[in-house]
């Protein structure tokens, strides 16, 4: 009987000792980050286009630029088209701002209907007369000088 009692006590102590090794650690739990920190939205503007078809009723078909979000989050970017021209010897400036919302990595072509219409109107006015004085179209950090030639 002493032998059984001794075996039972040893068994209980062994189980108790094994259980103590798995006791939870108290204190703050530090978790490993699971998501990389995302970079804020950042934009690149390129490919400024002025497409002219001199035979069309509206000669300027499109004024556009490509905008790409190279950052890690969604963002909104204001594209400002600035058309600088001379009319009757007087310098004129027309601005048109288009806002574009882009997801991270997304690229979009942004147009300016206002500038497109103005260039068409200028072209039509001067189609049968003298060459239009040199004009400049700027979009943010891009610039494109051009002349609307008469027919």
Q: Determine the fraction of residues in helical runs and give it as a percent range.
A: 10-25%
End-to-end C-alpha gap: 121 Å
Share of residues in strands = 35-45%
**Which stretches are low in confidence, meaning pLDDT under 50 for 5 or more residues running?**
none
Overall strand count: 7
Please state the average pLDDT score: 78
Biggest sheet: strand arrangement: 4-3-6-7
Silhouette? rod-shaped
The fold-level CATH name of the domain at 43-146 is: Immunoglobulin-like
Provide the succession of SSEs. HEEEEEHEE
Main structural class: alpha+beta
Question: Describe it for me?
Answer:
By secondary structure, the protein is an alpha+beta fold. It has a domain of 104 residues: Immunoglobulins (Immunoglobulin-like, Sandwich). The strands form two sheets. It has a four-stranded antiparallel beta sheet with strand order 4-3-6-7, with no helix packed on it. The chain has a three-stranded antiparallel beta sheet with strand order 1-2-5, with helices on one face.
């Amino acid at each position: 009987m002493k032998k059984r009692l001794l075996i039972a006590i040893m068994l209980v102590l062994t189980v108790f000792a094994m259980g103590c090794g798995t006791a939870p650690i108290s204190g703050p739990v530090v978790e490993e980050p699971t998501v990389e920190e995302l970079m804020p939205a950042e934009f690149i503007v390129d490919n400024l286009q002025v497409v002219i078809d001199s035979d069309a009723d509206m000669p300027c078909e499109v004024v556009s630029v490509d905008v790409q979000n190279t950052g890690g989050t969604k963002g909104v970017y204001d594209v400002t088209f600035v058309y600088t021209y001379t009319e009757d010897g007087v310098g004129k400036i027309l601005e048109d701002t288009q806002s574009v919302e882009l997801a991270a990595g997304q690229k979009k072509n942004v147009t300016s209907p206002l500038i497109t219409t103005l260039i068409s109107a200028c072209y039509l006015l001067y189609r049968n007369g003298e060459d239009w004085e040199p004009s400049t179209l700027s979009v943010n950090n891009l610039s494109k000088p051009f002349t609307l030639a008469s027919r």
